[in-house]
User: What shape does this take?
Amino acid sequence: MGERILLIEDEEKLARMVELELRYEGYEVEKAFDGRKGLELALDGGFDLVLLDIMLPALSGMEVLRRLRRESQVPVIMLTARDTVVDKVTGLDMGADDYVTKPFAIEELLARIRAALRKRPARAAEESAPLLTVGPLTMDTERHEVAVNGQQVALTRREFDLLHCLLEHKEKVLTREALLDQVWGFDFAGETNAVDVYIRFLRSKLDEQFGIKLIHTVRGVGYTIREEEHP
Ligand code: CA
Assistant: This one.
């Protein structure tokens, strides 16, 4: 079975032409003629790639892309009639993988499609490993969920980001300055007590709540997250 491509394009003649060519190449194709329907189909999933026109009725291509990227990393190639740098830059900034300017030769579109589909395995691997774990704690970075022994823990955004940073450097000691820099950013330079405060929040929601010890203070240095040692 061929890869499934969603074509969101309101120029029906062009859409039919592209569809025929893609089918000839062995792809399965579904079409949507406006942005709203296209977004709906794209969010339903099951597509290996989306071809997305920018000028669309109901919902613009940029808006479709913006909303799609909140939930999906499916490769998107923008189709733009306007050969403006702004559209391309905006589209790529917003997470489009590539763009093709109309009118395009079908060979060029096919080459871009093949390239975008080739890039997928690396991304798929990334997506299949969104879990960070330490001992009984798991963090699903995609769903933004944290659980201890399978039991969900509600964290604020900042607590989540701090925990995320610790987990990404599991078993390594992070200084307060490093944590502050990575989680809070520049504006908070010097306010390292914010780190201590949020470490306390995390300990109370995780370690104390579940009777475990994951977050360790390394005196004079900073903090680390690791599984408690069993003697
Ligand atoms: Ca259009």
